[in-house]
Amino acid sequence: xxxxxxxxxxxxxxxxxxxxxxxxxxxxxxxxxxxxxxxxxxxxxxxxxxxxxxxxxxxxxxxxxxxxxxxxxxxxxxxxx
Length: 81
Hints:
0% of the residues are buried. The chain is mainly alpha-helical. The chain contains four helices and no strands. Helix 1 (2-18) packs antiparallel against helix 4 (50-68) and helix 2 (28-37) crosses helix 3.
């Protein structure tokens, strides 16, 4: 589950980075709405370069996946000395 998800994210990020323009034009109203509805995200995105955006998004993806991983059952752990 982990590798296909990370690979898909990586591929999509590269395709997005290499694309010419958005399929739909982004208007000033769109930017204003983004800043109003998600002020911390908009501020962080404006201060990060492409490499940091990729690293942060990958960290976020891995943190989300980590919440789905179940710790081993205590019944399966070897008993102590």
